[in-house]
Amino acid sequence: MMIVYNVIFCLLLPIILFKLHTSGSGGRGFGKRWREHFGFIPPVHADKPLWIHAASVGEVIVAKPLIQALRAKYPELTLVLTTTTRTGADEAAKLGNGVIHRYAPLDCPWMVRLFLRRTRPQALLVIETERWLNYMLACQRQQITVVIVNARLSPRSFQRYQRFPAFFRLWAEPVQQLLVQHADDAARFRALGVAEAKLHITGSIKFDMTFPDSVVSQGLALREAWGSRPVWIAASTHQGEDEPVLQAFKQVLAQMPAALLVLVPRHPQRFDAVAALCASQGFSAVRRSVAGQVLPTTQVYLGDTMGELPLMLAAADVAFVGGSLVPVGGHNLLEPAALGKPCLTGPHYFNFSDITLQLVQCGGAVVVQDAEALAVQVLDLLQNPGVCQRMGAAAQQVVAANRGALQRTLQALEQVLP
């Protein structure tokens, strides 16, 4: 099976590299560090470092509180953080000099072996559930502890692995612990044959997220620059989703001509296309990347920068989170919820069903089926500040009530890390 896997992976390698160096790098490439994807990394001169793998921006954001806690608890432990993408590396750079960053090797056996020779880690922590078989098997052969942190398994992925159970077992066998977010994730892992002793429900570290005061203050400053107009944000939109968002915005403008839409596409390679779409539909738009001034006549503020979504969420009154009007599976509502914003999501939120349902049940979020329903909800919230504030407070309470995953994760790690 591993021969089949490695042959297929090698055949797909040109496609993987092309996507990695176009979309995965945010269009900026990797410079002289491109060789690191083949395992040719600068050696890590430290005794038994801890290797933490976070594929891209989202995983690095999840890893941040864990990394900060590990640095505080084990000040002498060297942490090596790997990312696959350039945008993930940019986010990792914000952690400062206390963490060594390297680009992760691609999942070819010799690339992984070369990486391990140059790092010699005592353990690997994988943030969420990236399933590279050679990572796991190489660590098993070298007796390197493997822990999956903040793990989740969506219904779609579960169905996929049910069709190829042998490959899933190859991935799962070397894992010492699976620290899963929710009970439904644990049930799906259990159904695929993961031993009960390996499974620990720790909750989602994302609930333990905290935003520095600078994020809130910068968001407030941004909002003041926009004036007293009503503002809503459509965050992390995907291809095919911007059109219904703009359609909804036309309905909002018909009743609230002063409204401002902050539109933030999920992937940087789509920034230009979304800007062109706004122009083609007759919207007056300003791009954040060019520091354009928002005038009273500006209708769309295009968030075309990386790592600044939290401050734009902080500046908005209402947050719609994308990937949910199209069958992508949605994105996490916890960032706007933690900032006290009422949350809207489309019907396709299956990747974050537990969090979304908690927010819906407590009155902190609403599921909208289409562009028309989105427009109705946005108008209702923007026209009723009291309702807007109550929803935001309810969402924030859900986040507060679920905190503690970070501490439970640290306690679980104490059992397996030397």
Automatic annotation (TrEMBL):
<dbReference type="InterPro" id="IPR001296">
    <property type="entry name" value="Glyco_trans_1"/>
</dbReference>
<dbReference type="Pfam" id="PF04413">
    <property type="entry name" value="Glycos_transf_N"/>
</dbReference>
<keyword id="KW-0808">Transferase</keyword>
<feature type="domain" description="Glycosyl transferase family 1">
    <location>
        <begin position="298"/>
        <end position="397"/>
    </location>
</feature>
<comment type="function">
    <text>Involved in lipopolysaccharide (LPS) biosynthesis. Catalyzes the transfer of 3-deoxy-D-manno-octulosonate (Kdo) residue(s) from CMP-Kdo to lipid IV(A), the tetraacyldisaccharide-1,4'-bisphosphate precursor of lipid A.</text>
</comment>
<keyword id="KW-0448">Lipopolysaccharide biosynthesis</keyword>
<dbReference type="GO" id="GO:0043842">
    <property type="term" value="F:Kdo transferase activity"/>
</dbReference>
<comment type="pathway">
    <text>Bacterial outer membrane biogenesis; LPS core biosynthesis.</text>
</comment>
<keyword id="KW-0997">Cell inner membrane</keyword>
<dbReference type="InterPro" id="IPR038107">
    <property type="entry name" value="Glycos_transf_N_sf"/>
</dbReference>
<keyword id="KW-0328">Glycosyltransferase</keyword>
<dbReference type="InterPro" id="IPR039901">
    <property type="entry name" value="Kdotransferase"/>
</dbReference>
<dbReference type="Pfam" id="PF00534">
    <property type="entry name" value="Glycos_transf_1"/>
</dbReference>
<dbReference type="InterPro" id="IPR007507">
    <property type="entry name" value="Glycos_transf_N"/>
</dbReference>
<feature type="domain" description="3-deoxy-D-manno-octulosonic-acid transferase N-terminal">
    <location>
        <begin position="32"/>
        <end position="209"/>
    </location>
</feature>
<keyword id="KW-1003">Cell membrane</keyword>
<keyword id="KW-0472">Membrane</keyword>
<comment type="similarity">
    <text>Belongs to the glycosyltransferase group 1 family.</text>
</comment>
<protein>
    <recommendedName>
        <fullName>3-deoxy-D-manno-octulosonic acid transferase</fullName>
        <ecNumber>2.4.99.12</ecNumber>
    </recommendedName>
</protein>
